[in-house]
Amino acid sequence: MKVLQLFRGRVYKGKLGSLAVMAFFAGIAVICAATLPAIAQNRSMSPYQGERDGESAGGKWVVFRSEDKMTAAKNVRFELQADNYLSTSPAYKPRVELSCTNRKYTDADFNPGIPLGPPNRPGFWGQPQIEVMVRVNDTHHYHGWNWVRGRFLSMDKGTTRELIGAQVFKVQIPGPRGPEIAEFSPAGLNLAQVKQECDLTPKKPSKD
Question: Rounded CA gap, 106 and 146, in Å?
Answer without folding.
Answer: 15
